[in-house]
Design goal:
Blueprint lengths: L9 E2 H7 L6 H9 L3 E3 L2 E2 L5 E2 L4 E6 L2 E7 L9 H4 L3 E3 L1 H16 L13 H12 L2
Antiparallel strand pairs: 1-4, 2-3, 2-5, 5-6, 6-7
């Protein structure tokens, strides 16, 4: 794993991309700028340098991750290797599992219609509008 230029810190947006929390670095930068990422409890800019041991709170609706940085990297690696970059807190895992179960059993709203009205339906609508 490569580390930052100074060897002990990496930009927040770059680490989030390398750890595979976001598909592109620009998405990671947008999330940081939008306040979806906090480092040690404070909102940061994308250029904030993070170090090993920092606590990150990442909001990716509807889920929220609370993680501790274990390794630094500037380059994207496979998903299996990226899991070694961080450790998620037990509370965060529990909260995500609970929310996932709630969303799974929540009734979904779906469209029951069949699309555009047929010619017959259109005639009935016209008759209803005209009042005959």
């Amino acid at each position: 794993m490569s580390t930052g230029p100074s060897g002990d810190k990496v930009r927040t947006d770059r680490w989030l991309w390398a750890a595979r929390f976001f598909k592109t670095r620009s998405l990671a930068a947008e999330a940081v700028d939008g306040g979806k990422v906090q480092v040690n409890g404070t909102r940061v800019r994308r250029s904030k340098m993070i170090a090993v041991g920092d606590l990150l709170r990442i909001t990716k609706p509807p889920y929220e991750f609370a993680i501790e940085v274990l390794q630094l990297a500037e380059h994207r690696v496979s998903a299996k290797l990226a899991q070694d970059f961080y450790a998620e807190t037990a509370d965060s895992v529990r909260a995500r599992e609970l929310l996932s179960a709630q969303l799974k059993y929540q009734p979904s709203t779906s469209y029951e219609g069949k699309g555009r009205p047929t010619k017959r339906d259109r005639r009935e609508i016209d008759r209803f509008k005209r009042g005959r």
